[in-house]
Write a structure and sequence with these properties.
8 helices; two-stranded antiparallel sheet; 8 strands; alpha/beta
Length: 246
């Protein structure tokens, strides 16, 4: 009895003092120790960070030098977004990291990612204009299924580093839209039209807002959210996204 209790105590001690809450690297699954961050050192250093020119509106990486706008924002008469940053390319370990954040039951990982994203935001000339952080919402049904909104945790990490207020549920999703995966740009627009609204206009009226999400593929979700914010009186909407596709 004593021996089994001793072993259990030792295991608990090692677990609580040596290992991080997430246990393993979300990218390569290597066991993590408290001397490391939420990723192992190798994966943290090899993340596909966006260093090439990016779209002036949404921040997505551009496929060619000399371009100012991505193929989704460029053709628009009113791009809605005033600027944005994307931290990682949505490929390889960047894609694995987002997948772990969304489906690996690791909401605390989002705060760490948000803090890394904040360092990129601080480099932008519009960073000092920001007054409020808001996250792209999940519908109640999907929130209940997953247990958390990953974008909430990204926003918390960003707000903490940028020293900005963050309010959950600034935006609300009015209906549960089908997944965007595999849809064309036109289908995505139809899928999301009218899907978002501001909970209380007084929270956003006259403010410059940083809108946060996990992935930017065509930018449809971000633009629909920005439309809702600007209809409610927001002065400007900038975006910060964990990963983006060209």
């Amino acid at each position: 009895m004593f021996e089994s209790g001793f072993r259990a105590g030792v295991k608990a001690f090692l677990r609580e003092t040596l290992f991080l809450p997430n246990g393993v690297c979300p990218v390569c699954k290597k066991v993590l120790f408290r001397t490391e961050s939420y990723l192992c050192e190798r994966c943290a250093q090899s993340l596909p960070r966006v260093t090439m020119p990016a779209c002036k509106y949404c921040g997505k990486p551009l496929s060619e030098k000399g371009m100012d706008f991505c193929g989704d924002c460029g053709p628009l008469r009113d791009p809605v977004l005033d600027g944005g940053v994307v931290w990682l390319h949505y490929i390889g370990s960047g894609q694995k990291l987002v997948h772990s954040l969304k489906f690996g039951h690791l909401p605390q990982l989002g705060r760490w990612i948000g803090r890394q994203m904040a360092e990129v935001v601080k480099e932008k000339d519009w960073a000092e204009k920001l007054e409020l952080v808001a996250a792209v919402p999940l519908h109640e049904k999907r929130l209940e299924e997953r247990g958390y909104n990953q974008s909430d945790y990204l926003a918390e990490g960003l707000a903490d580093v940028l020293n900005l207020p963050y309010k959950r549920e600034v935006l609300k999703r009015l209906y549960d839209t089908p997944h965007q995966i595999g849809l064309s740009r036109e289908e995505r627009l139809v899928n999301l039209t009218g899907a978002f609204a501001v909970s209380q206009e007084k929270n956003v009226a006259g403010k410059t807002i940083l809108l946060v999400d996990d992935v930017n593929t065509t930018g449809s979700t971000l633009r629909e959210c920005a439309q809702a914010l600007k209809r409610a009186g927001a002065r400007a909407v900038y975006t910060a996204v964990c990963a983006g596709a060209q």
